[in-house]
Amino acid sequence: MTITAATRLYGILGHPVGHSLSPAIHNPEFAACGHDAVYLAFDVPPGRLPAAIDGVRALGLAGLNLTIPHKEAILPLLDAIDPAAARIGAVNTVAAEDGHLTGYNTDGIGFLNPLSARLGFQPRDKRVVILGAGGAVRAVAFALMDAGVSEIVLANRTLQRAEALARDLRATGNTLVRTVAWDGPFTDPALASCDLLIQGTSLGLHDELPEIAWPDLSPKAIVADLVYRADGPTRFLQTAATHGYPVYDGIWMLVGQAAEAFRIWTGAPFDIERAARRCRPDL
Ligand code: NAP
Fold it and tell me: What is the percent of the chain where pLDDT is above 90?
């Protein structure tokens, strides 16, 4: 592409951000739809976020993604927040217009859309077990509740964190939400009737394996991992596959949230399959 004075600038702010796949996801899609734009990664330490956002306004960037550790800290720095993102309490996408910044959260819908499209998962009246209760799980749990799942069981090492998320979910939806303290190999009666099991802890990033009682898991369950690796499926998904379960890689959530951000910024189509294979040719 030719960069000119009219080229718009987008970027991701994170710390660290050097291994982000987002530039490799967005730049080819901008080119594919003829959008005159570039997307860069900016390493912004936590204390520099307010200055970075002043810079975004001053330089007239067109849009942003936020990743660890900025998804919550960005909220007070924005001019407007989409109600769904406000309820989650985190923003991963910002649209900028003449320095006016609006925050969105595309993580939850980014998880759900490819899951439905690729594996035919229809959330209504489904039962879901989620391991973890951190920021990524919050976004996914709200999206699942909004899409009509009947039950969410939240299992987390720190029970209070799961209980806080359960309270927030119950405050705005009708889904039955139950919490479980998770220490040691995970087993719970909910596994037997589970339609979707989601691994949402940061275990797996470094090859640690969250343990669950696989023989207890319903044979109809889909197994998803929010964690993704650039070099192949996580050990958790490899283990699920050896037990015969259909698996859903965290890369799909990554490209799904990117597709939603892209839609907010440009309104243009985004090829999720092509973007995912650019990140992981094995998918
Ligand atoms: P977070 O807010 O820091 O939450 C971390 C979660 O992992 C908490 O539930 C925490 O439990 C649990 N955990 C950490 N170490 C553990 C251990 N040794 N044993 C048991 N539980 C442990 O992180 P996050 O933002 O939710 O991210 C979670 C994972 O999702 C990360 O690996 C991230 O890369 C991935 N992610 C993927 C996408 C995507 O697009 N695919 C998007 C966002 C995040 P406690 O509450 O007990 O500490």
Answer: 93
| Pairwise CA distance, residues 174 & 55, whole Å | 42
* pLDDT tens readout for residues 122-136: 999 999 999 999 999
Q: Which residues line ligand 1 (CB under 6 A)?
A: 107, 132-137, 156-158, 161, 200-203, 205, 226-228, 250, 253-254, 257
Active site residues: 71
Pocket probe for ligand 1: among 180, 202, 205, the residue whose CB has the most ligand atoms within 8 Å is: 202
For residues 179 and 219, membership in a common domain is answered with: yes
Asked if residue 2 is part of any domain, the answer here is: no
| Tens-place pLDDT, residues 203-245 | 877 777 888 999 999 999 999 999 999 899 999 999 999 999 9
Q: How far apart are CA 5 and CA 3, in angstroms?
A: 7
How do residues 37-90 score in pLDDT, each as one tens digit? 999 999 999 999 999 999 999 999 999 999 999 999 999 999 999 999 999 999
User: Residue 34 maps to which CATH number?
Assistant: 3.40.50.10860
Spatial distance between the Cα atoms of 150 and 225, rounded to a whole number of angstroms:
21
- Same domain for 259 and 239, yes or no, is no
Q: Residue 95 C-alpha to ligand 1 middle, in angstroms?
A: 26
Assign residue 201 the CATH number of its domain: 3.40.50.720
Query: pTM of the full predicted structure?
Result: 0.96
In Å, how far are 25, 159, 249, 279 from 282, measured between CA atoms? 16, 36, 11, 9
Cα 30 to Cα 34: distance, rounded to the nearest angstrom = 6
What is the domain extent for residue 266?
8-105+253-279
How many structural domains does the chain have? 2
